[in-house]
Design a protein that fits this description.
The structure is a single chain. This protein has no helices and 11 strands. It has strands at 4-7, 10-13, 18-24, 33-39, 46-51, 58-60, 68-73, 78-83, 92-99, 112-113, 117-122. Strands 2, 4, 5, 6, 9, 10 and 11 form a 7-stranded mixed β-sheet that branches. It is globular and about 40 Å long.
């Protein structure tokens, strides 16, 4: 069992930065691939970024590549999403999720989810 808690969301102007954190409970955090997803009002949840259990493999959606960076610290049971050059279209609730099968873009592969943190980017 893994419990995930996101933090770091907030209101930021376009072009600004935020760093989201996802703290995990449980001693098996390092065995999970971790993903970040987001969901804007009226839209489906979409993959943003993911990292393998070691951090050696990362994946990004085309819409965030070059602006967002995913990383993890297994000693701290935490995964991060550094968000730079934010745009109004990045506004959404951001979720972290854990998967045993490796980095996947399909949310149905993920076993555990956090409650989400709101990111709002003003123009």
């Amino acid at each position: 069992q893994v419990q995930l808690v996101e933090s770091g969301g907030g209101l930021v102007q376009a072009g600004g930065s935020l760093r989201l954190s996802c703290a995990a409970s449980g001693r098996t955090f390092s065995s999970y691939a971790m993903g970040w997803f987001r969901q804007a009002p009226g839209k489906e949840r979409e993959f943003v970024a993911g990292t393998s259990w070691s951090g050696g493999i990362t994946d990004y959606s085309d819409s965030v590549k070059g602006r967002l960076t995913v990383s993890r610290d297994n000693a701290k049971n935490t995964v991060y999403l550094q968000m730079n050059s934010l745009k109004p279209e990045d506004t959404a609730v951001y979720y972290c999720a854990a998967a045993t099968v490796g980095v996947r873009r399909d949310p149905t592969w993920y076993d555990y989810w956090g409650q989400g943190t709101q990111v709002t980017v003003s123009s």
